[in-house]
Amino acid sequence: MKSKKNLQSFSILAGIIMTVFLSSCEKDPVTLALHEPIHPTSSQQVTYNLTKVTSGSIDSAKLYEQVNTINSSGIITSTGSDVLLQTWTSPSGDLSHTKSSGHGSNKLVTYRWEITTPDQSKTFEVTYATRPYPVTNMPAPVYCQGDPDDVFDVVFIPDTDITTMSNFYDNCHGAIEEAFFDEPHTRFWRRQYNFYINKQKGTATDYDDIATDGTHQVPSNNANLAFAEGRVLMHENNLRDYASGGLFSTEMQNRGTIMHESGHALYDLADEYGSGVHWEETNYPNNWPTLANAQAAGNNYGSCKSPSDATEMGTSGWYHLCVSNCQMVTSGLTHTEYDCPCKSRITYTVLDNAIN
């Protein structure tokens, strides 16, 4: 886990970053750049997709690719050329390009979309590895955009109960596209995430059976995953999920659970239901220990919240402002959305992570 800056440093630098960021916000159409399969074998074809999330027109687009060769130490031994794959002029819908063949073994592939709209130009650059990944005891990058020190790093770990690994890979892609890049606020910050897949497996246990089964069994290379804020143990069995040993568990198809647990792991958000775990963060909390404190905080979110929104979570003696279906209240198959106090906390941690 990466260390945090002090509040004074954060306040100064966050102000600078936010000013720059707001002056260059993405204008419509908001677009998502993804590839599939998310972790291809050396022989699999790969499709690059650029999907418009909001309405708007694209004047032109270019897709580039560079294929490098790496060794077991992760060192690039052969650098490929930056190749233009396709150009589009005034396309009417989503964009897609499929490579005619696989990339080969021990490859680290970077693709780049360059897009021009009526209001701005924007670039998306993503790096992924082919399978099997040659670097010993390290997770394979499958959707990486930035320096691990500056973005949130999330590692998907397969459980020993998974019978079909192709389903696991598909659900890793789904967790990115249908969870992190679908919830509006995390999609807003989508450039601030790196995603990896771990080859070594772990074993999740049920929270209600810890007394007999023990806590989660971490993968053998768990020490090498310490750089990641989010270590996600994805399983098939129907379990009551929880966090232990530096990772959290989820059924691999549950987009709501992965977003709820990421709220804890990435952003230090507290639960927002009565029987959950409650605390008050020093900066931008989503839980308050008294009604008066929660009511006072209700004035901090513009028209989104008011003091009258402060309510007790069950009979916990803790209070929150978020709506009843905020993502930190719910989990399960489908995700909901983070409400304003949670969004403020997420923005704080994104910026703090970027400047540490």
UniProtKB/TrEMBL annotation:
GO terms for molecular function: metallopeptidase activity. InterPro entries: MetalloPept_cat_dom_sf. This is Uncharacterized protein.
